[in-house]
């Protein structure tokens, strides 16, 4: 069975963020770093080459495939800041999403161009709800 390519790395989070070329994304990334740390009370870890993750959970699919992944986090990608808020898409957070501001979403991610486009208080609530949802769904063993 194939091994998960996105794993925790030893890369320094601060060095990674400082390597981001876009100055606005770099500033926004340091703001996100503090938001996620304060809400999750987890230390950030680089997952793969470019994701800053907080917390970890173990999953196992019916197919037998299993692995570990970050509970929540973000990545300062070239096109947008990618926010990994897996729980937000599975539970009743539509009222928050309506108040968030300008974003796009996929199954487990929210994409924003810059933090100025969204309401940070709403984002804090989404991070907290997503983190709590995932911790409850995948309790530590």
CATH architecture: Alpha-Beta Complex
CATH fold-level name: Aspartate Aminotransferase, domain 1
Termini, distance in Å?
A: 23 Å
CATH class wording: Alpha Beta
Structural class estimated from helices and strands: alpha+beta
Helix content: 25-40%
- Total number of strands: 6
Task: Explain the overall architecture.
This protein is an alpha+beta fold. It has a single domain, classed as Alpha-Beta Complex (Aspartate Aminotransferase, domain 1). Helices cover 35% and strands 25% of the residues. The protein has four helices and six strands, in the order ααββββαββα. It has helices at 13-18, 23-40, 94-100, 120-137; strands spanning 44-47, 51-60, 66-76, 81-84, 104-105, 109-112. The protein has a six-stranded antiparallel β-sheet. The radius of gyration is 15 Å and the shape is globular. The model has no long low-confidence stretch (mean pLDDT 91).
Summarize the structure.
This protein is of the alpha+beta class. It has helices at 13-18, 23-40, 94-100, 120-137, and strands spanning 44-47, 51-60, 66-76, 81-84, 104-105, 109-112. The longest helix has 18 residues, at 23-40.
Note the topology.
Elements (H helix, E strand, L loop, with lengths): L12 H6 L4 H18 L3 E4 L3 E10 L5 E11 L4 E4 L9 H7 L3 E2 L3 E4 L7 H18 L4
Antiparallel strand pairs: 1-2, 2-3, 3-4, 4-6, 5-6
